[in-house]
Amino acid sequence: MKPLKYSVLILSLLLANISFAQDAQEIIKKVQSKYNTIKDAQATFSQSVKYSSGSSQSSSGTIYIQKEDKYRIESKNEVIVTDGVTSWSYSKKKKQVVIDNYKNDGNTFSPNKFLFSYPENFYSDLEGTETVSGIECYILKLTPRHKGSVKSAKIWVDKEDNLIRKITINSSESGTTYSLKKITLDAGLSSSKFTFSPPEGVEVIDLR
Q1: Is 171 helix (H, G, I), strand (E, B) or coil?
Q2: What is the 3-class SS of 175-193, one letter each residue?
Q3: Are the beta carbons of 166 and 179 closer than 8 angstroms?
Q4: What is the pLDDT of residues 20-61, one digit of tens each?
């Protein structure tokens, strides 16, 4: 290849990378703008986890969020709740509730970060587009700015509504995928949705 043609090719690749980076930032701004206009949201979800050991599991349920750090995840066998101060993890199978202080680690998974607001501790790149449940989405790859439990992640952003429809989160122990459906914004959720009273007869482990 002639030097001039080689230089043009390199320049074209660099410009393409810059364009993709700019596109990613524009998409993120739209997601942030959407998030800033709402108070709460709920959605149904399906979850699949593949562990490094080779085993896997799946579940489905409903997720509720309220700004800023409140969320509730309900599935067949588990309920996870936080009011932004205290967190509760209830295993129906074990008949056990673990209570702890809510920890807002920039590299750990929080629905509020990934569903509607861009996690500021991650770099982003636009990888392309893909259809999720019949909805055309942008695919954004997220790379942590600092070392933590999350090694990488991807989010699928609805082109029309600027909502996140799918999330994958990879750590050294597992890879987790969340797919979201029936998203309702400003659902009028009560603050009582984000507290939890242990049922009678269950073991309570308080780590606070």
Answers
A1: coil
A2: EEEEEEEEEEECCCCCHHH
A3: yes
A4: 445 888 888 888 888 888 899 999 989 899 998 889 999 899
Show the tokens assigned to 103: 């920890």
Say if pTM beats, i.e. exceeds, 0.90.
Answer: no
DSSP-derived letter for residue 172 is: S
The DSSP result for 46-91, as a single string, is EEEEEETTS-EEEEEEEEEEETTTEEEEEESSEEEEE-SSEEEEEE
CATH 2.50.20.10 fits 3-206, yes or no: yes
User: Which contacts (CB < 8 Å, 24+ apart) does range 11-17 have?
Assistant: none
Alpha carbon distance 46, 180 (integer Å) = 7
Q: pLDDT tier at 150 (50, 70, 90 boundaries)?
A: confident
**Nearest partner of 100 among 82, 112, 77, judged by Cα:** 82
Give the CA distances from residue 127 to residues 20, 23, 118, 157, in Å, rounded to whole numbers and listed in that order.
Answer: 8, 10, 16, 12
Could you give the C-alpha distances from 41 to 58, 103, 189, in angstroms and in order?
23, 21, 8
Q: Where are the domains of the chain?
A: 3-206
**What does the DSSP assignment read for 9-55?**
HHHHHHHHHHHHHHHHHHHHHHHHHHHHT-SEEEEEEEEEEEETTS-
Structure tokens at 163: 């909502």
Rounded to whole angstroms, the Cα distance separating 41 from 35 reads 10
Contact between residue 108 and residue 148 where contact means Cβ atoms under 8 Å apart:
yes
Q: Would strands 203-206 and 70-75 be described as parallel, antiparallel, or unpaired?
A: unpaired
